[in-house]
Amino acid sequence: MGQTYRHFSREFKRHAVQLVTEQGRPVRQVAHELDLHPNLLHQWRRQVVTQGEQAFSGKGRVKPEQAELRRLRKELETVKAQRDILKKALAVFSKQHR
Q1: 79 vs 67: CA distance, rounded Å
Q2: Residues 51 and 71 occupy one common structural domain
Q3: Treating both helix axes as pointing N-terminal to C-terminal, what angle do 38-51 and 10-21 enclose, rounded to 10 degrees?
Q4: CA distance 64 to 30
Q5: How far apart are the two ends of the chain, measured CA to CA in Å?
Q6: Count of CA atoms in the C-beta half-sphere (13 A) of 28
């Protein structure tokens, strides 16, 4: 029997973190009221502290840094492929002149 995972919306996570940070309520109490494990709430709070508005971007939403990294890696693959083709062409043409 597989374990089922619950998914929480960005708004739910932000609200849960606000209950702890802005209202000063204990993590354990808020976690119990929302039927969460306290460690999960601690994790969400760390994400808000470290990532700010970028926290909880969700599925399919890529952070700008990750999108740029993905684009650069793809561009690097293209440039390497072009380089390899040119090396092979140079080898073919240099053999023809001999």
Answers
A1: 18
A2: no
A3: 90
A4: 32
A5: 69
A6: 0
Mean of the pLDDT values across residues 57-84?
Answer: 86
pLDDT band at 97 (very low <50, low <70, confident <90, very high): low
C-beta of residue 27 within 8 angstroms of C-beta of residue 41: yes
Q: What is the pLDDT of residue 64?
A: 79
Q: What is the pTM of this model?
A: 0.56
Q: Which residue has the tokens 């092979």?
A: 88
Based on the domain organization, do 31 and 44 belong to the same domain?
yes
Segments in the chain forming alpha helices (H)? 10-21, 27-33, 38-51, 64-96
Higher pLDDT, 55 or 58: 55
